[in-house]
Amino acid sequence: MHTQETEVLSAADMTWELMPNHIELYHREIVSAEQADRLGIRMSSILWEKLGIGGQVLPHYHDVVEIIHITVGEVKLLCGEEWYSYRAGDTFHVPAGVVHSVRNTGDSPSEQISIFVPAETDVPANCFFGTTLIEDIYSSKL
C-alpha cells in the first residue's frame, strides 16, 4: 500500500547517530527502506551524514549503488587507489561492488547526502519525471 499523505521529518526531532566501524561518522536516516516501500519506490536508504574533523567513511563496498552529494565542507574521495579532493556541490556516483571511501579534509565537519539504490539487472529505461500543474487554489492560504 502506498502512502497518500506527505510525511515531514523535522530536523529538530532527529538526532545524529554514530555509525559503527568508521571514524567520526554520524547519520540521520531521511528515507528508510520501510518508508520507500510506503511510497512505492525502489530505495535502500537515504542518509544525511556528517563527518567530524578528521572523520572518515573507511574503505568499503556494498551491493547497492551509492550517490553521494557533498553539501558542506571539503573531502577526499578514494577512487580506485587514488584520493581526489572535492567540496560542497560535488556529487559522486559509485557503482555497486566498487571500493570507495570519503574523508573530511577541512577544519570543520563536512556533510553529505548518501542515496543507496538497489542495483538490478534488466531494468527498464528510466525517464525524466512528468509534472501536472493544478489550478492555483493553494497560494492564497500562505
UniProtKB/TrEMBL annotation:
InterPro entries: Cupin_2, Flavonoid_dioxygenase-like, RmlC-like_jellyroll, RmlC_Cupin_sf. It comes from the Bacteria. Residues 50-115 form the Cupin type-2 domain. Coiled coil: none annotated. It comes from Paenibacillus tritici. This is Cupin domain-containing protein. Pfam families: Cupin_2. PANTHER family: LIGAND BINDING DOMAIN PROTEIN, PUTATIVE (AFU_ORTHOLOGUE AFUA_6G14370)-RELATED, QUERCETIN 2,3-DIOXYGENASE-RELATED.
